[in-house]
Amino acid sequence: MLRLSVVIPTFNRLASLQRTLAGLEHQTFPRAEFEIVVVSDGSCDGTNEFLRAQNNLGAVIQENQGVAAARNAGIARASGEIVLFVDDDVMPTPQLIAEHLATHARHRDDVIVLCPMLTPRDFKMASWVRLEQAMLEKQYADMSAGKWHATARQFYTGNTSLLRRHVVQAGGFDPSFRRAEDVELAYRLAARGLKFVFNAHAIGYHYADRSFKSWFDIPYTYGRNDVIFTRDKNQTWLLPTVFDEFRKRNPLIRALAHACLDHSRASARAITLLKFAAQCGDRCNLAALPRVSFSGIFNLRYYQGVADELGGRAKFFARVARAEKPARVPGEESREQSIIWGEDFGAVDNAFSQSTNGDCPRAQGY
Q1: In the chain, N or C terminus with fewer CB closer than 10 Å?
Q2: SS3 sequence, 251-292?
Q3: What does DSSP assign to residue 105?
Q4: pLDDT tens per residue across span 32-59
Q5: Its pTM surpasses 0.85
Q6: Which residues have a Cβ under 8 Å from the Cβ of 13 and sit 6 or more positions away?
Q7: DSSP 3-state assignment of 114?
Q8: Has residue 366 got a pLDDT over 60?
Q9: Number of other residues whose CB lies within 10 A of the CB of residue 313
Q10: Domains of the chain by range and CATH?
């Protein structure tokens, strides 16, 4: 049995995928001792033809089913004892695989190794994506400094590994979720007793390219999913944590939610103004303005998702009013981190944009 299988789901990101594969071909760990499995999930940009022409990787080509189904197909095809999930927009540094394996060697078999996806210096990101990356890197810095330990909420499948049998025994990724499918699996893994370990040295560079619309849809889906995870997936600690965190948010965020939740016109006006402020900040090199503006948008969309899944703003604010101290997050040893981005805002995603028509969509992917 091979020691490790790299599983990469992809959807219409051929150039980015090729960059990821090139990085994997230049690892310090011997190439003969690991395999690469790429799952093309309905790609129509030349990815399938490229994969069929390769003789040094395992290719799975399927109809579009979503990132969870794609990763499950990769797990089924993989033969390694350890599965390393890498996204198709992550460029692995040469020591990435060696560092993952070294961390597994230092710990028992019941660990999940979480590793950073850093911002590349040679790539210009959209300002809304820069915010996302900045909050990721703050989490990495805090974990490296020992401010808090890694938990299920840092299970970002762009650069993480665990024994393949643990994923199989847990039932794999739930394909009913198009977003947050990684965190949902992580909660189940934590419930099975697995521990999360952070290795800051297994670096991947994240060439994140996401349209504003794709980014805009993410927090709303995350909000709805957090209600679903609590209600249907037995994560009873989650919504109490959401409501407790809301009461601690920046007063401007709370005011924005009170003014806009379930009020579509007010929400649209607020989002338009915040987006305009962010654009002005970009033009004038005022870095704080886009950060605050896009964080406001993200929070508003997230809490609207929570409210809609609960049944409206009245139920949302009623739950906030009677919020109790939440139970501990599965696998968590410290409550230093926020359930949402940073001190004031957000959440983090491993986003997947699916095709919604018969044409080949542009700028899609995981």
Answers
A1: N
A2: HHHHHHHHHHCCCHHHHHHHHHHHHHHHHHHHHCCCCHHHHH
A3: H
A4: 999 999 999 999 999 999 999 999 999 9
A5: yes
A6: 45, 47, 88, 89, 364, 365, 366
A7: strand
A8: no
A9: 19
A10: 4-206 (3.90.550.10), 226-321 (no CATH)
